[in-house]
Design brief:
Strand content: under 5%
CATH architecture of the largest domain: Up-down Bundle
Number of helices: 20
Radius of gyration: 21 Å
CATH class of the largest domain: Mainly Alpha
Number of domains: 2
Length: 470
């Protein structure tokens, strides 16, 4: 067996990083690759807009709810072991999705996928942090990690369009099979086993409260336009009660699912809010953009994916640059560029119409991609920088959870605000773009707040607090 007491040689370290990035690739890409296939799923399975929202959000809700449990379980049972379980379950869930014959079956299969995915990303980040103990090497590895997250989400729509046109919508799930099998082989061969020195105990109550709160909140947003007032109000009250109970219960646990002390760090708490804001924008953008291009403008799936290429090119080009900027200049420049680009792109889209010149639409997509491409590396870096290495897995899980919560909220809000209207769909999206422009302004403000002397001081205080015994 490979031991974990000595550091990995450089070549092995790179292979470990590549293996972990493969897991991030499939989990992140699966958030977006389905979007271009949504119109095809709608036609074949007779799905409504709400059904399509659940196809996306069932995945992200479960992923968000169980990421922290996945990280804690890996710290206790072994990171390589849990990572392999997660990859096997994710791959199996992808196969189930490809054989779904109704939206209900597809949603259930997406839940299986998400359960596997929850055992991948936070565990992989903990493996990366363990593999690269030197701060400079760790910063570079985290930069690559953040870049892969952005690239995966950007490539998803393009790959989804090509696969849907060539082989049908089911093929967007087949692509996970070879990647999953390759990752399993690399993990068995190169990734050493590791555990946290003091693994965390399971927090069953906290887990149930988090899942209940997120599911009830997203249900309220998706179903409120169609449900009666009593049903929607009951779901909203359930969400509020679950989140309030979580905030009251967690500080009383010795080893909570969600360590609220993390949020005393300005860089960490603002990174969480920025992740929610930007990924909500990405979820809404891809959901609305895919429907607009195919059902309003009448483009085929490959052409719709091609129209999203400017966004993908911007993300692919700027994500590595953002990682290098974070390593050299910190998080502020990348976050400011991201927020400004989000404001500019969404303001351009507030004038979207069925006959908007395509070059103008593509320009807005490109500017949006610039904003999204710059945000992943600083979010990831802020989530773990300044914290003890033993807390890296949990901190990364919270950051990943924030991303998935953002996507869920973005898709839920986008679908609910536009509804099933097709004739005036472009006009119906305008309210969403104005809301996202406000999110971009929020990102700019949070970036200025978190990256100054006050933010650094708060991170140092929290790091000292976490190192002390509770």
């Amino acid at each position: 067996m490979i031991t974990t007491n000595s550091p990995s040689p450089p070549a092995r370290s790179k292979l470990i990083l590549a293996t972990c990035c493969l897991s991030l690739l499939v989990v992140s890409m699966d958030v977006t690759i389905v979007n271009v296939a949504l119109p095809a799923i709608r036609r074949e399975l007779g799905a409504s807009v709400a059904d399509l929202q659940w196809v996306v959000d069932a995945y992200t809700i479960v992923l968000a709810s169980f990421l922290m449990l996945g990280g804690a379980t890996a710290d206790r049972l072994g990171r390589r072991r849990v990572f392999r379980w997660g990859m096997a379950l994710f791959t199996f869930g992808s196969v189930l999705c490809s054989f779904a014959d109704s939206t209900a079956v597809l949603v259930m299969a997406r839940i299986v996928q998400a359960l596997g995915g929850s055992m991948l990303n936070p565990v992989a980040m903990a493996i990366v942090v363990h593999t690269f103990p030197a701060p400079a090497d760790r910063a570079r590895a985290i930069g690559i990690w953040g870049a892969v997250a952005g690239i995966a989400m950007a490539l998803g729509p393009l790959a989804g369009g090509v696969l849907t046109q060539a082989f049908g919508w089911r093929s967007v799930f087949w692509i996970n099979l070879p990647i999953g099998l390759l990752a399993l082989w690399l993990t068995s061969r190169y990734v050493p086993e590791s555990r946290a020195p003091t693994p965390r105990r399971p927090d069953t109550v906290g887990q149930i409260l988090l899942l209940t709160g997120l599911a009830a909140l997203i249900y309220t947003l998706i179903e409120a336009p169609r449900a009666d007032g009593v049903e929607a109000g009951g779901a909203a009250l359930l969400a509020a009660a679950a989140f309030i109970a979580l905030l009251i219960y967690e500080p009383r646990r010795h080893e909570p699912l969600l360590d609220l002390r993390f949020f005393r760090s300005l860089p960490f708490s603002t990174a969480t809010l920025i992740a929610i804001s930007m990924f909500a924008a990405m979820g809404a953008f891809l959901f609305l953009g895919s429907i607009y291009l195919q059902e309003t403008r009448g483009l085929s799936a490959p052409l719709a994916g091609l129209c999203l290429l400017p966004m993908a090119v911007a993300v692919i080009g700027l994500s590595p640059l953002s990682g290098r900027m974070v390593a050299v200049r910190g998080a502020r420049p990348s976050l400011l560029i991201s927020g400004v680009a989000l404001v500019l792109s969404t303001l351009m889209l507030t004038r979207l119409a069925a006959d908007t010149p395509l070059p103008m639409v593509l320009t807005a997509f490109f500017v949006f991609g610039c904003g999204f491409g710059m945000v992943n590396a600083p979010i990831t870096y802020a989530a773990v920088s300044g914290l003890p290495r033993a807390q890296a897995g949990l901190a990364s899980a919270v950051a990943s959870t924030s991303r998935q919560i953002g996507v869920s909220l973005g898709v839920a809000l986008a679908g609910s605000l536009t509804g099933d209207r097709v004739a005036d769909f472009a006009a119906a999206t305008h309210r969403v773009w104005w809301i996202l422009a406000g999110s971009g302004a929020l990102i700019v403000g949070l970036a200025l707040l978190a990256t100054g002397a006050r933010g650094r001081a708060s991170a140092e205080r929290v790091a000292h607090l976490l190192e002390e015994p509770q």
